[in-house]
Amino acid sequence: MSSEPQLSGRRIQVIGVTGAGKSTFARRLGQELSIPVCELDSLFHKSRAGGALSEDDARRSVQVLVESNDEWILDGNHWVQLKDVSYNKATDIIWIDTPLPLTLWRVITRTVWV
């Protein structure tokens, strides 16, 4: 018998290259399914207050979210930091695969016009 509790609900990891549209897709999916969404880049790279959390603090934040919610959507790649925190608990992993010209356009326009 497993010592880990049985999980229920949808636990979705949205991954893809920079500029693929992960955050937009995850937000829309979260609204449609009424599931909380966590944008991993905001934890690991930048916060709304201006600075990034330490890698350990960001990892702990994700771990708290994953362990305290039956359903969640995580958007971002961060495999190295989260392989044992969220990926092994995900019910679905969605790979956003956009054409290279579209991805480049998104990255360039986001960088130039932000």
TrEMBL record:
Organism superkingdom: Eukaryota
Alphabetized Gene3D superfamilies for the sequence: P-loop containing nucleotide triphosphate hydrolases (3.40.50.300)
Protein name in the entry: Acyl-CoA synthetase member 2 mitochondrial
